[in-house]
Amino acid sequence: MPMTPLITSLLDTDLYKFTMLQAVLHQFPASYGEYEFKCRNTPQQPLALLQHQLEAQLDHLCQLRFTQDELDYLRSLRFIKSDFVDYLELFHFQRRFITVTTAGDNLVVRLQGPLIQVMFFEIFVLAIINELHCTRLDTPEVRAEGQRLLDEKIATLQAFQRTEAAQQRFPLLISDFGTRRRFSRDWHYEVIRQLHTAVPEIFRGTSNVYLARQLGITPIGTMAHEFFQAFQALGVRLRDFQKAALESWVQEYRGDLGIALTDVVGMDAFLMDFDLYFAKLFDGLRHDSGDPYVWGEKALAHYHKLRINPATKMLTFSDALSIDRALALHRHFSQDIQVSFGIGTHFTNDMGLEPLQIVLKLVSCNGQPVAKLSDSPGKTLCRDATFLAYLRQVFNVAVPASAD
């Protein structure tokens, strides 16, 4: 049976891959990175069974090029620079930078190569693995359950719009962040299409550039952990890597894409570096680990301390959200500060089955280990225990009660 390609466009990825890649190309194009795949839960079927299918899909991915229409679309985004689009016109993935093997029931995926290549693989690889896994579980009954659950979400949002929206100081803004963990490409399209049609006042965008273009909605995204992590190995003093990353972003985007990610070494350590200069330059902050209420109150207190009116800023929540969690957070914070929500798996892979919890994370840059000290136990990722201990010492981050 011939292989059906799961990725047919190089736009079928998250916007922040383009925005980070542009900064890498302009500011540290010679950097070299290594990424490792990890599944955080136990799949219903061993992922090792997917090896040969994944290899075939990667072979296809490495044949894709950007079309002229796609390049024109990217050029139309005001923060994408002309020389970066010229680079993308020449771009194609190099197959030698990604290897797939197995260890028992586990799938072992490693990326090694120039950051301007390997950074771009992540979302495609995760989306492919998810869809290959989910195809084995796909039935009409599963699709029907997914539609029923989506109908419930839409009904909840429509009820909020009817009964509560007018009472809120700031509107409820929700976007799709679910490309990497989607059940399938066609289901992802359906979810976004139905949400955009049913609740356009609330559903404002998607991180997926291809679907944003296809459906005429806003692509959403700024930066991910890997951008900050790379600065741990780019020649600045380790204590200063967050400030260096933020300054790099400011210089690249000059006021665009102003939502800063906070949890690479934890919120407390981030706020120590997020001084008045950065707090004025960035539009807001993104939460991706730890207690969202504690995080949000810390952000509010920090803005008050700096004598910045929180109502001029935005908090974006994106960690394991559901509609109910998003509504509760909105009710809690929206009288004081603008809030928005990026919802992933709950939108694109809520089918009545346990979804995979898979990641593909940067573990070294330029031959040096890098790490993320998450505010959530179990999300910290580093393969070098000595560097991890040193990073904790430098930023005065305690070892959590539960092992990482």
Automatic annotation (TrEMBL):
<dbReference type="GO" id="GO:0016757">
    <property type="term" value="F:glycosyltransferase activity"/>
</dbReference>
<keyword id="KW-0662">Pyridine nucleotide biosynthesis</keyword>
<comment type="similarity">
    <text>Belongs to the NAPRTase family.</text>
</comment>
<dbReference type="InterPro" id="IPR040727">
    <property type="entry name" value="NAPRTase_N"/>
</dbReference>
<feature type="modified residue" description="Phosphohistidine; by autocatalysis">
    <location>
        <position position="225"/>
    </location>
</feature>
<dbReference type="InterPro" id="IPR041525">
    <property type="entry name" value="N/Namide_PRibTrfase"/>
</dbReference>
<dbReference type="GO" id="GO:0034355">
    <property type="term" value="P:NAD+ biosynthetic process via the salvage pathway"/>
</dbReference>
<keyword id="KW-0328">Glycosyltransferase</keyword>
<keyword id="KW-0597">Phosphoprotein</keyword>
<dbReference type="GO" id="GO:0005829">
    <property type="term" value="C:cytosol"/>
</dbReference>
<dbReference type="InterPro" id="IPR036068">
    <property type="entry name" value="Nicotinate_pribotase-like_C"/>
</dbReference>
<dbReference type="InterPro" id="IPR007229">
    <property type="entry name" value="Nic_PRibTrfase-Fam"/>
</dbReference>
<dbReference type="Pfam" id="PF04095">
    <property type="entry name" value="NAPRTase"/>
</dbReference>
<dbReference type="InterPro" id="IPR006406">
    <property type="entry name" value="Nic_PRibTrfase"/>
</dbReference>
<feature type="domain" description="Nicotinate/nicotinamide phosphoribosyltransferase">
    <location>
        <begin position="174"/>
        <end position="397"/>
    </location>
</feature>
<feature type="domain" description="Nicotinate phosphoribosyltransferase N-terminal">
    <location>
        <begin position="11"/>
        <end position="130"/>
    </location>
</feature>
<dbReference type="Pfam" id="PF17767">
    <property type="entry name" value="NAPRTase_N"/>
</dbReference>
<comment type="function">
    <text>Catalyzes the synthesis of beta-nicotinate D-ribonucleotide from nicotinate and 5-phospho-D-ribose 1-phosphate at the expense of ATP.</text>
</comment>
<comment type="pathway">
    <text>Cofactor biosynthesis; NAD(+) biosynthesis; nicotinate D-ribonucleotide from nicotinate: step 1/1.</text>
</comment>
<protein>
    <recommendedName>
        <fullName>Nicotinate phosphoribosyltransferase</fullName>
        <ecNumber>6.3.4.21</ecNumber>
    </recommendedName>
</protein>
<dbReference type="GO" id="GO:0004516">
    <property type="term" value="F:nicotinate phosphoribosyltransferase activity"/>
</dbReference>
<keyword id="KW-0436">Ligase</keyword>
<keyword id="KW-0808">Transferase</keyword>
